[in-house]
Amino acid sequence: MPTRALRSRSLKRIGTRLQTDWQIYALLLPALAFFFVFNYKPLYGIQIAFRNYKAAFKITGSEWVGLKNFRDFFSSYYAPRLFANTFILNLYGLLWGFPLPIIMAILLNQFQHERFKSFTQTAIYVPHFISTVVMAGILYLFLSPTNGIINHLLGKSIYFMIEPRWFRSLFIMSDLWQHAGWNTILYLATLSSINPEIYEAATIDGATRMSKILHVDIPHLLPICTMMLILNAGSLMGSNTDKALLMSTPGNTPVSDIIGVYVYRMGMERAQYSYTSAIGLCVNLINFVMIMSVNWLSRRVGETSLF
Questions:
Q1: Band of the pLDDT at 126, cuts 50, 70, 90?
Q2: C-beta of residue 279 within 8 angstroms of C-beta of residue 263
Q3: Is 12 a domain residue?
Q4: Domain of 41?
Q5: pTM summary value
Q6: 57 lies in a domain?
Q7: Residues 38 and 111 in one domain
């Protein structure tokens, strides 16, 4: 009886909130519909990873094979190389790509001339809007061994896009040039929200510009930096498949063959949907474990976490 009364009061409270704040919930409906249609409804298809999917029999009519697809992948010759290439590429990208936007945001925040600051921000934001296909085309043109401007300046012919040792460096450097400036937006917004009185007090106390960066800017940036690091840790086994696929050549396959490229080739070219679904599910589970682990570690060490 008490449980029924408590449930009744809860329902009445919900009904009252819906009546008083219906405009807010109405605005929330499109976002809820989006996440339901594109994020939750497709979860029904996860079972493809546990079946021998045949389009003619649809999902439920296909044969249930359990963990066979997972065993086939982990016992394959390519699995160790795929995991190693994907992890190393993303780890290097995180080591170089995570601190660079923070440093750039701190430097931009020090500019006193507003017009020069605006021009600089625009200049570093523009590459973000270049499509992946165009970016890959630029790399092929600039690094061409016959008429590329880079080889022309070096005075010799280096096959950058074919030699495996250049793939990761080119992938990461082009990513930094394209996205580092755009990623400064969040950090610049954090710095702009700092109370100017703090800087004034630091100036009165005789603090230098470097001291303000160390004792004012960085402490204010730490919480948002921690949250971004947690989110980035959850994509260490993910990859920019489009770019890796476009930059992939027969010569650099030993290092460019990452999980995303392998899934594309096996799924789209060979129609092994169940097999590639199992690989994708494994990657997502690994990323989930990593983001939960880093979040737990961050909460224990620095008392800052996403949840």
A1: very high
A2: yes
A3: yes
A4: 2-46
A5: 0.84
A6: no
A7: no
